[in-house]
Design a protein that fits this description.
297 residues; alpha/beta; Nucleotidyltransferase, domain 5; Arc Repressor Mutant, subunit A; five-stranded mixed β-sheet; 13 helices; 7 strands; 11% strand; elongated
Length: 297
């Protein structure tokens, strides 16, 4: 049997982290998989730490339990991270599902039964599963999974502070605290901030807002300069949108467009592509390759 949980879904920076914890059925039945190591670790007469949801434990308690989990041979556990660029591309719920699936893929052998915290199960999973509301407060396996995920992500955020010291990540772990908002306003978002989250998006520069909105236009679809400006919150700034896109021109080669901002998906309000000469022809070729109907232009 196994329990799977995640942390970091509501954070503004850093990855969402998932952890799966699995034990043999015999160990689960007697709960020996966590009682034995706790009894070994604490002197007689010393109160043992209760296994419960990670949010209800102090950081030191979570660390102690995590170390005990690593020492117990009956416990198998795996961790997976999904980073902000993927979160921004597929949304936080899909990123959570992806993190869960990656955890299970690392687990060998696969469990016969899976507990999840919350109301949602993993779609198209070939493992029997059950989602339980507040399960991390009721099921020991889910409590352990929440602890493993929380400690793993917290340690990662502490390491990231060395690269981004201006945000004090070790203190808030990427969540929307007063301190984090202050640093976000002062320094602007970093590459590990989630641009799809409104508080982060609002602190982007105008150019970065344009690039983010345009990068989200699906293949084969278009937006006008006015529509991009409206999405940013400045309906009359459509000329500024065009100027920003001109600073990130389309390479004059169809082979070099991967990973670039799809500027060709932004057209004029009259339905015309806009542009001149070679650049206009390249826009047409790119839209045609993506399946956009050229007779609309």
């Amino acid at each position: 049997m196994a329990g799977i949980d995640e942390v970091g879904r509501g954070a503004l920076a850093g990855p969402v982290a998932a952890a799966v914890v699995a034990v043999p059925g015999a160990s689960l039945a007697g709960r020996s998989f966590w009682i034995r190591p706790l009894q070994r670790a604490y002197p007689k007469g010393t109160p043992r730490i209760e296994i419960r949801d990670s949010k209800l434990l102090a950081p030191k308690q979570r660390e102690e339990i995590f170390e005990l989990i690593k020492q117990e041979p009956a416990i198998e556990w795996r961790v997976s991270f999904v980073w902000p660029k993927v979160i921004d591309r597929i949304n936080i719920w899909q990123a959570t599902l992806l993190a869960w699936r990656r955890c299970l893929k690392k687990l060998n052998p696969q469990p016969d039964f899976l507990f999840l915290d919350g109301q949602m199960e993993i779609p198209r999973l070939k493992i029997a599963q059950r989602a339980i509301v507040r399960g991390d407060q009721k099921i020991a396996l889910l409590s352990l999974a929440s602890i493993v995920a929380k400690v793993s992500r917290d340690r990662l955020m502490k390491r990231l502070e060395k690269k981004y010291p201006q945000y004090s990540l070790a203190q808030h772990k990427g969540y929307g605290t007063k301190l984090h908002f202050e640093r976000l306003t002062k320094f602007g978002p970093s590459e590990i901030h989630r641009r799809s989250f409104q508080p982060v998006f609002e602190n982007l520069s105008f150019k970065d807002k344009v690039y983010y909105i345009v990068s989200r236009i699906p293949s084969g679809q278009v937006m006008t300069y006015q529509q991009v400006a409206q999405r940013i919150g400045h309906p009359r700034a459509y000329r500024a949108v065009g100027n920003a896109l001109n600073k990130n021109p389309i390479p004059f080669s169809l082979k070099r467009t991967r990973g670039k901002i799809p500027c060709h998906r932004v057209i004029r309000s009259d339905g015309q592509i806009g542009g001149f000469g070679r650049g206009r022809q390249l826009k047409k070729k790119l839209l045609q390759r993506e399946g956009y109907q050229l007779d609309k232009i």
